[in-house]
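Hello everyone,

My group is preparing for a crystallization screen and wants a predicted model to guide construct design. The compound we'll soak is pyridoxal-5'-phosphate. Before spending weeks at the bench, it would help to have a computed complex in hand. I've included the protein sequence and the ligand's SMILES below. Output in structure-token form would be ideal because that's what our pipeline reads.
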Amino acid sequence: MGAGTGAFLKPSMSFIPYGRQSVDEDDIRAVVEVLKSDWLTTGPKVEEFEKALADFCGVKYAVAVSSGTAALHAAVYAAGIGPGDEVIVTTMSFAASANCAVFQGGTPVFADVRDEDLLIDPREVAQKITKKTKAIIAVDYAGLPCNYEALVPLARKHGLVLIADACHALGGSYQGRAVGSLADLSAFSFHPVKNMTTGEGGAVTTNNEEDARRMRIFRNHGITVDFRQRMEAHSWYYEMADLGWNYRLTDLQCALGLSQLKKLPGWIKRRNEIAARYDDAFAPLAPAIRPLHPSSRIPYSSTIHGRHLYVIRVPAARRATVFSELRQRGIGVNVHYLPIHLHPFYRAHFGTGPGLCPVAEAAYEELLSLPLYPDLTDHDVQRVIEAVQQTL
Ligand SMILES: *Cc1c(COP(=O)(O)O)cnc(C)c1O
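Reply:
Good plan to model first. Here are the tokens for the complex, ready for your pipeline.
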């Protein structure tokens, strides 16, 4: 997160970041148009973007918010999580995937992942369900959708809300269905390293009208009518119905989002092309280098990998060396992620620690993310491949 992105790290001959936004003249024009309009925030572009995103994901509703973290928080709020409730969450993710439960007073219960894909293991989830469990948060790690064929019936059987943290997977699909339509609530991030960007930003998609309505109130301080609705109704009166936040996304950002969304399918194609080139180049290097999700071994049919990250596994004893050698060659490798249950906050407040999720803990020691973004040139890809080969 953060590192490896932003204006201070433009791709150059010397440094290739692990992720980077694509912004063109159309994007810039769209934002400037809004700057000259009457509405900088909570105006018509918000609804327009929400409608476009909902259509893209094949769902009825999208609620735009100010970040992926806000999206997760809104989803957990919509799911009705409160003090004493348990939320089962994969440990192989960014901390926000679990923090969102804590924001509402809930208790994250960490589930281990499957070694072959580092996605939440449905058997682990089943074992960790108690009378207090209210929701499951599954993360489409690196962009590959989780095993929803197992997770959806499990959630139904136990009356749990299934939340997809799909921050890596926008633009992907699972067995012919778009990411964003696979769980009760799906959260997205539009941070610059993600599959498309609004600068900062996020959204939740759902088919549940009541959940969408409540999340719109939640993102606006818990106030039941927004400023534009009051303007149009010629009314000053508003009430705060519940505790909410300022999680609004601006019209500037939504205009950028609308412009970016049009290009997303092409970008996902390019991300998969690059991944396939890496796969081919690294296949002969096993077991020193093992791609996590080789294109030839996607476990489901009619599935498009969202390819936010290109993750390889290297022997744990060599990870630190490979990391620093690649960085020295100007290749912006990263590690995604330290398992959430190993963060000091969770150890201190939830009593977690080593041994809780052994598969994720062992995998973590081997992980490296290589540069992957649509504007990566074939020449850059070749440079990354050669740099990896030279570390051997
Ligand atoms: C990026 C990310 C988030 C947080 O999104 P922000 O927009 O940075 O708040 C949450 N979960 C996952 C899996 C992410 O990759």
